[in-house]
Amino acid sequence: MIPPAPPSDLLGKKALEGDRIGRRRGPRNGGVRHRGRLLEPAALRRQTPGKGDGGIFGIPADRLIFEIHDLVVRVEEFDAVVVETEEIIGVGADIFAPCALGGVINDRSIPQLRAQIVAGAANNQLLEDRHGEMLKERGILYVPDYAANSGGVFSGCVELLGWKAEYVSKKVDEIYNTVLSILELAAAENISTSKAADRIAESRLR
């Protein structure tokens, strides 16, 4: 097992340069492209559109063409390696980024994980709350989904609440410190990061 590094080391840009990211593909509003560029040159290990996601006949032709083209471009841009959906969990990556379906962190997947960090844009990544504790026990740092993907919510506020682009950028920049505060609380209280995030969220709602 890889011993967990200090939060500042794991989140620092310099500490992540050259690292490998295992990403399950999904919506991009959460800032997946931004994260990829931040870490470049990184070797992104990505999944191909496949039967597990509805199959070729379940994907509109124009969307399928776009996805394939985008995949080819990203593979070339980041010198990436493409693997199948069933293999991505166990890929030897530094970061596993769930960016599609929820519930991918579960009793079956956690023992297979070889990544040091789980941070992605999917919602409800933990199938159950106890899986956050299981990640902690394995020494895998989990960035809670609703913190990691909050950039997508901020982006939606442009249309829904009339936020200006400058304000959205400011809120996105604050995500780093939000995540850092979650990790620091988790370390100080010796609790899972998912539980720490819930505590902070609950305190802000009171």
Please give a quick description of this structure.
With 206 residues, this protein is α/β, with parallel strands linked by helices. It is 48% helix and 10% strand.
- Based on secondary structure, the structural category is alpha/beta
Sheet having the most strands: 6 strands, parallel
Question: What's the helix-strand series?
Answer: HHEHEHEHEEHEHHHHH
- Quaternary state of the chains: single chain
User: Based on the structure given, which CATH architecture is correct?
Assistant: 3-Layer(aba) Sandwich
Number of strands: 6
CATH first level: Alpha Beta
Number of helices: 11
Query: If strands are numbered along the chain, what order do they take across the biggest sheet?
Result: 3-2-1-4-5-6
Question: What sort of overall outline do the alpha carbons produce when their principal axes are compared?
Answer: globular
Give the CATH topology. Rossmann fold
Distance between the termini: 39 Å
Portion of residues within helices = 40-55%
